[in-house]
Amino acid sequence: MKTSRFPGFYNMTVEERRQLLTTMDTFTDEEKGYLFSNEPLPTDTADKMIENVVGTFPLPLGLGLNFLINGKEYVIPMAIEEPSVVASASYIAKTVRNAGGFTTEATDRVMIGQIQVVGCPDFKAAKEAVLKEKDALIADANAAYPSLVARGGGAEDLEVRVLNEESDSKYGQMLILHVYINTCDAMGANIINTMVESLAPTVETITEGKVYLRILSNYPDRCLARARCVIPPELLQTGSYTGEEVRDGVIHAYEFAASDPYRAVTHNKGIMNGIDPIVIATGNDWRAVEAGAHAHAARFGKYSSMTEWSKDEDGNLVGELELPMSVGTVGGSTHVHPISKLAYKILDVDSAQELAQVIVSVGLAQNLGALKALATDGIQKGHMALHSRSVAIAAGATGEMIDIIAERLVDEKEIRVGKAKEMVEEYIK
Ligand code: NDP
C-alpha cells in the first residue's frame, strides 16, 4: 500500500504547503515568486488576454492528493470556489490508490472541423462530389497548417452528411462536412478554424453551394479519454455502513442517474466539480470541455449519467467514465497565465492525451465521493462543515474569527449566514 507524498498537508498552514510544494519540482525563482505572490496574474498580462480588463478574479487553488493513475503518482492542481471538492477528491483517490489506482486510456486526439454548405442545386450530387475530392481536400487542409503535419498531426479523414433531407423538415437542407484533424497536444480550436476556413472556396466550387459556418465542433467524439477503478467492498466501509452496503448504494445512485435526466444533471454536475477545477488550473477552455461532456452524456438520445457503476463477479465496485476531452498542454491560455505554467509542473504530464486521462480520473473520483456520501450519511454532514468557513466570511468574519465562528456554527448545527451574523455581532461587542 503506497502512502501519500504529502502527509499531513490538510493540517498545514498555506505558507507550509507552499514551502513543501516548491521542494517537489524544479520551479524557477520567477515561478516561486508567482506562487507566493499576491498578484499571480499581473494586470498587464490579463489586459492582453481579454478585452475591457479592469482587474483579475482570483480563485482558490488547492491540490488534489493521493492520485495513482496507471501506476504513476499525480498531484492535481484544482482552481475552484466550492468547499469540500478538493477534500473529497483526495479522500476517494486514497481509497482507489489502496485498491491499485485508476487505469486509463485515451484515443488519438482527433478533433472535428465543420463546414456548412447551403443552396446546393443537388445535395446528393454535392455530397458525392465532395467525397470524390476527399483526398485533395485533406491535402488542402494540411497545406494550411504544415507545422501540425510536421509534428505528426493534421487532417486525417473527411465525412459528409446532408441535414434536413425530409420534405417536412422545418429547416432548409444543408451539406455538412466533418474534417477530422489530429491536433497533437493543442486543444486545437484556432488550428481547426484556420484549416476549415481555408477549404471554403474549394468547397463552394465543388458543391455549387454557399459556405456559411466554418468552425470546430465542441463535441469531439473521436477524442475520448476513459478512466476505470475497481474497489473491493472492504475499502468502502464507512461508519456503521458495511462495504457491501456502500457499494450497493453507489450502484443504486448510479441507476437513478442513468434512468432520470433530473438526477443525471446533478450527478454529472458532481463529476464536473472534479473536472472543471483542473481544466481551469491548466488554462484550458472549461466551457468547451463542459459542452462536450454533456453532449456525450446524451449520445444515446436521452440525457444520462456520464459514469457507470457496477459490481464484478468478485463483488468489487467497478466505476468507469468516458468523456470527450478537448484539452491541450500547449496553445490557447495554457502557458499565458503564470499559475497555469506552475500547474503543469505540479501535474507533470507529457502530453494532452495524458492530461485528458488525469482529468477523467479526477471526475470519476469526484463522482464516487458524492455517491458514497449520498448513499450513506448524505452530503450535508461533510459539506456543510467545510462550507461553514465560507458562511462565516459571508457574515463578515475576518482573521481568527472565521474559524471560531465556523466551529460554533457546526457545534450548534445551524450553518446559516443569519446565524453567523448574530455570532459576528456578539464577537465584536
Ligand atoms: P493556438 O491557436 O494557441 O494553437 C496552438 C499552437 O501551439 C499551434 O499553433 C502550434 O504552433 C503550437 N504547438 C506547439 N507545440 C505543439 C504540439 N505539440 N501540438 C500542437 N500544437 C503545438 O491554440 P488552439 O488552436 O489549441 O486553440 C485553443 C484556444 O482557442 C483556446 O484558448 C480556446 O478557448 C479558443 N477557442 C475556442 C473555441 C471553441 O471552443 N468553440 C472557438 C475559438 C477559439 P506551431 O505549429 O506554429 O508551433
Automatic annotation (TrEMBL):
This is 3-hydroxy-3-methylglutaryl coenzyme A reductase. The lineage of its organism: Bacteria, Bacillati, Bacillota, Bacilli, Bacillales. InterPro entries: HMG_CoA_Rdtase, HMG_CoA_Rdtase_bac-typ, HMG_CoA_Rdtase_cat_sf, HMG_CoA_Rdtase_CS, HMG_CoA_Rdtase_NAD(P)-bd_sf, HMG_CoA_Rdtase_sub-bd_dom_sf. PROSITE patterns: HMG_COA_REDUCTASE_3, HMG_COA_REDUCTASE_4. It catalyses: (R)-mevalonate + 2 NAD(+) + CoA = (3S)-3-hydroxy-3-methylglutaryl-CoA + 2 NADH + 2 H(+). Belongs to the HMG-CoA reductase family. Keywords: NAD, Oxidoreductase. Signal peptide: none annotated. It comes from Virgibacillus litoralis. GO terms for molecular function: hydroxymethylglutaryl-CoA reductase (NADH) activity. It is an enzyme of class 1 (oxidoreductase). Its EC number is 1.1.1.88. It comes from the Bacteria. Pfam families: HMG-CoA_red. Pathway: Metabolic intermediate metabolism; (R)-mevalonate degradation; (S)-3-hydroxy-3-methylglutaryl-CoA from (R)-mevalonate: step 1/1. The keyword Oxidoreductase applies.
